[in-house]
Specification:
about 180 residues, alpha/beta, Rossmann fold, two-stranded antiparallel ribbon, 9 helices, 7 strands, binds flavin mononucleotide
Amino acid sequence: MTERHIILGVTGGIAVYKAADLCSRLVSAGFQVRVVMTPSAVKLISPKIFLTLSNHDVLTDLFTEHEAKPEHVHLATWGDALVVAPCTANFIGKYASGIADEPLSTTALTFWGPVLLAPAMNDNMWASPILQENLAKVVRVLGARTVGPETGHLACGTTGKGRMSEPADILAAVQAMFA
Ligand SMILES: Cc1cc2nc3c(=O)[nH]c(=O)nc-3n(C[C@H](O)[C@H](O)[C@H](O)COP(=O)(O)O)c2cc1C
């Protein structure tokens, strides 16, 4: 079987620490992984972690590309699937609206293959009717799939629905997309 190419989108949610584990698991499972980070994600975790784990450059800036072809266009052609983990409420809103104002949202709008979102957020954000409408739109219009979120302890100190699925479960969902 040819090696599958995963674009791993990392957004600015507190569950970014689990994205490093997911990246490692994807690579160990035999996927080629290219990571794209939002500016908020870069404020929470170093791209160097993903550079090391994926063994590829990490896209963090739309405007520092060295190649003639914009990197987000190259990546969108390279990828067999886009996985966004953690996936913020903000990203879902932008994806649902066609906004492309940083590397990940621009890559996502350019990419037409299978998309898996792993939402992770505060339980009130998750329960927001606007968030739910945006998510329903990306599922209905773009065919995006979701994994999680789970109910449990949240970083904000409460218990509720909004916890990102565990990396092992996200990996299983990615593998199921190709089964
Ligand atoms: C420490 C910290 C943790 C955050 N965690 C989350 C989160 O888990 N989910 C979420 O939707 N937003 C979270 N936010 C808010 C996002 O970072 C904010 O909405 C940002 O604009 C998201 O940008 P992005 O979607 O481009 O990454 C958090 C913010 C901070 C400062």
